[in-house]
Amino acid sequence: MNKYLLTALALLGTLTGASADNVSTYHNSIYRTGAYKIPSLTLAASQGVHLDTAFKPKVTGNIYAQPLFYRPQGASKGMVIVATESNSVYALEADSGRKVWKVQLPASVPVSELDCGNINPEGITGTPVIDPVAGVLYLDALIKTGKGPRQMIYALSLNDGSIVANWPLDVEAAMTAAGMTFLSTTQGERSALLLSGGNLLAVYGGRYGDCGNYRGTVIQIQTQTPKLLASWQTRAQAGGIWAQGGIAGDGDSFFVTTGNTMGASTWMDGEAIIRLRPGLAHSTDKKDYFTPSNWQSLDDSDEDLGGTEALPIQIAVPGSKAALRVIAFGKDGNAYLANRPNLGGIGGAIQVLQASTGAIRTAPAVYQTSTATMVAYTNSGNSKCSGNNEAMLNVAASGTSPMSFAWCTALSGAGSPIVTTTDGASNGIVWVVGAEGDNQLHGYNALTGAVVFSGGGVSMNGLHHFQTILATEKRFYVAGDNNVYAFTF
């Protein structure tokens, strides 16, 4: 077989999702593709998706984080892991919703005790991450202490929820000891944690209101014994990292997007796609960052490029190596496509496409086949559709305008989509919840946008526009305030 075809097939396997025993990280991949393989969920079968009315777990707290799925090796049943803003963490039996264990961490923080914000109380916001081999869950929680609010990173045993010895890590104390500025009263944590190659990474931004002296921050933590190994911060004030997926990886590098900086007369890491490597060394090489030429205007208008995480994508090229790209969507409504090996520096994108007339701030998902790369995203209107809608872009490996609209369709709400297939390519379906709209589950043919599931008459309560869907081989799970919904198929 041609060596380039082998490479393309290997890359495809990393991006098209897995039907493995665990969903251990946000959107089911370090690439943050939101892709899942579910052999039984064909286009035809999608019409039979329905709410499991017997699944009625009792959970307490507002929920912004994506639930995760863990099945211990050799176990016949899995658990859904749910973390709330009340700093409660639950393991629920995946079939019944019965509580397997619950751990209550120290109290979360009322917004009145923070410099600003719109999450009240604030506790666990970003999606945790599972180490399935060690059977450990890692998460960031904002807690009340005698010294005031503190961002703390915990490690919990998935056997019973107990805190692993020597944890948690006080992020503020560790950063202060390393000579870095970090105040938990101003540094918010909305983004998912990441485990990759033995590295635990967490990212931080500010809070709603852009108050105080915060900076876009990435930290790398040793997990065997908790220790801050490295950190990276924007050179200018602000530049927060706040997208739901937070940080993505491709096995070699990590990618983050930053928001608006304050007081910067020259570019200082804001409004950018940034490449980092283990050790988090700061680089000003244009290969390691992209920012639009109008970055200062974006700063002034608070139209963050960092509305979504940066997704590393691979585009198969027949007879040649795959094209390596990174795509991100901004609050300015633009889709930004950059060359992954050389991000291009200031103004160096391959293409900038107006993908929406309003802000894009919910995570996209990738539908990858051997012949096509397509990216689904939720938006508030574009040249093809008016009003809130779900849209799909085609992304080609070359050409003067490699990004183009594939389809769009009306959606009442603003959830983050996922993509399911039966084998990695066939029966592609885009699924999304109409969060803060009709609050229903919706499914669309990934190739055409045709409706394949229109809610089933079920309107869920307490969904936030951050919310996405956990998919397993038997069910979907959607978390709302004080509740988790299960849909069977």
Q: Mind sketching the topology for me?
A:
Blueprint: H1 3-15, E1 35-37, E2 50-51, E3 68-70, E4 79-83, E5 88-93, E6 99-104, E7 129-131, E8 136-145, E9 148-157, E10 169-170, H2 171-177, E11 194-196, E12 199-204, E13 217-222, E14 227-233, E15 237-238, E16 247-249, E17 254-257, E18 261-262, E19 273-276, E20 289-291, H3 295-301, E21 311-315, E22 323-329, E23 334-339, E24 345-346, E25 351-354, E26 365-368, E27 373-379, E28 389-395, E29 403-410, E30 418-421, E31 429-433, E32 441-445, E33 451-454, E34 470-471, E35 475-480, E36 483-488
Parallel strand pairs: 1-30, 20-24
Antiparallel strand pairs: 2-36, 3-4, 4-5, 5-6, 7-8, 8-9, 9-10, 11-12, 12-13, 13-14, 15-18, 16-17, 17-19, 19-20, 21-22, 22-23, 23-25, 26-27, 27-28, 28-29, 30-31, 31-32, 32-33, 34-35, 35-36
Question: What report would you give on this structure?
Answer:
- This protein has 489 residues and is mainly beta.
- It has one domain: 8 Propeller (Methanol Dehydrogenase, Chain A).
- The chain has 3 helices and 36 strands.
- The chain has a 5-stranded mixed beta sheet, with no helix packed on it. Strands 16-17-19-20-24 form a 5-stranded mixed beta sheet, with no helix packed on it.
- β11 and β12 form a beta hairpin.
- The two termini are 38 Å apart.
- The N terminus is likely disordered.
Q: Please work out how many helical segments DSSP would assign.
A: 3
Terminal Cα separation, in Å? 38 Å
In terms of quaternary structure, the protein is single chain
Helix/strand/pairing category = mainly beta
**Second-tier CATH architecture:** 8 Propeller
Strand content: 35-45%
Helix content: under 10%
The pLDDT mean sits at: 95
Please give the CATH class.
Answer: Mainly Beta
User: Low-confidence segments, ≥5 residues, pLDDT <50?
Assistant: 1-14
- Total discrete domains: 1
Whole-angstrom Rg:
21 Å
- Look up the CATH topology: Methanol Dehydrogenase, Chain A
CATH homologous superfamily annotation: Quinoprotein alcohol dehydrogenase-like superfamily
- Strand line-up in the sheet with most strands: 1-30-31-32-33
Largest sheet: 5 strands, mixed
- Identify the overall geometry: globular
Number of strands: 36
